[in-house]
């Protein structure tokens, strides 16, 4: 079992609620956040670029001209880095209208709006039958009731979003395709592994963040492939 027993659920609750309040208190014109040396703009109610996705971004490898689907794009950071990394097409989707607005602005700001399309979608609902070489996902880590769209960026009521992701993702992977999946030691790591296996996929942890002094939270990136091609 990878979920760390030393991570206090009470402390994580407090930290996540504080972050959600921060997302909501952004001024109407938005604010700029620096992430891996680049500036990203976020409007109110958008999940900010944070440490959680850094292992994924650092390990993300895109072949020249490959297609990428970024599920739960938030401010668009993973999609932007995929576009800058040589992708020929990137589709970034999110259910949150504020995230769509933020991601579109960031695509323009980084000069990748010719490669990166941003579309409002609940997971794959508006993706159609398109398939991709690479799918990236930074979904909510915890099975906890989410009262609004902001909380949904961190909490997954009944683990519905994660469950549907693994039920449906195989239909959107090209042969030989792969998934880069972000998660955390305070999330449902064992359940993610179970859902992936149930979908006929193999999971390998590629990297984890290194907690600082006194820091219990740790973020992971998993490489997930259909078992037949793993």
From TrEMBL:
<dbReference type="Pfam" id="PF05175">
    <property type="entry name" value="MTS"/>
</dbReference>
<keyword id="KW-0489">Methyltransferase</keyword>
<keyword id="KW-0949">S-adenosyl-L-methionine</keyword>
<dbReference type="GO" id="GO:0032259">
    <property type="term" value="P:methylation"/>
</dbReference>
<dbReference type="InterPro" id="IPR007848">
    <property type="entry name" value="Small_mtfrase_dom"/>
</dbReference>
<keyword id="KW-0808">Transferase</keyword>
<dbReference type="InterPro" id="IPR052190">
    <property type="entry name" value="Euk-Arch_PrmC-MTase"/>
</dbReference>
<dbReference type="GO" id="GO:0008168">
    <property type="term" value="F:methyltransferase activity"/>
</dbReference>
<dbReference type="InterPro" id="IPR029063">
    <property type="entry name" value="SAM-dependent_MTases_sf"/>
</dbReference>
<feature type="domain" description="Methyltransferase small">
    <location>
        <begin position="53"/>
        <end position="186"/>
    </location>
</feature>
<protein>
    <submittedName>
        <fullName>Methyltransferase</fullName>
    </submittedName>
</protein>
């Amino acid at each position: 079992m990878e979920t760390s027993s030393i991570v206090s659920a009470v402390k994580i609750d407090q930290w996540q609620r504080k972050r959600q309040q921060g997302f909501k208190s952004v001024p109407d014109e938005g604010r700029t956040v620096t992430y891996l040396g680049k500036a990203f703009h976020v409007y109110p109610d958008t999940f900010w670029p944070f440490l959680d996705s850094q292992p994924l971004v650092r390990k993300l490898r895109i072949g020249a001209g490959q297609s990428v689907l970024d599920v739960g794009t938030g401010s668009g950071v993973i999609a932007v880095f995929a576009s800058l990394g040589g992708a020929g097409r990137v589709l970034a989707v999110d259910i949150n209208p504020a995230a769509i607005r933020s991601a579109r602005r960031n695509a323009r700001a980084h000069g990748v709006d010719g490669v990166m399309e941003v579309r409002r979608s609940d997971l794959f609902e508006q993706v159609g039958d398109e398939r991709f070489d690479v799918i990236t996902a930074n979904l909510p880590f915890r099975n906890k009731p989410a009262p609004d769209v902001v909380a949904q960026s961190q909490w997954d009521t009944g683990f519905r979003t994660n469950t549907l992701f693994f039920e449906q993702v195989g239909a959107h992977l090209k042969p030989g395709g792969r998934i880069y999946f972000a998660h955390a030691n305070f999330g449902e790591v064992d359940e993610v592994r179970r859902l992936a296996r149930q979908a006929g996929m193999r999971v390998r942890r590629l990297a984890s963040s290194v907690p600082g002094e006194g820091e219990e939270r740790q973020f992971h990136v998993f490489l997930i492939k259909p078992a037949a091609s793993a």
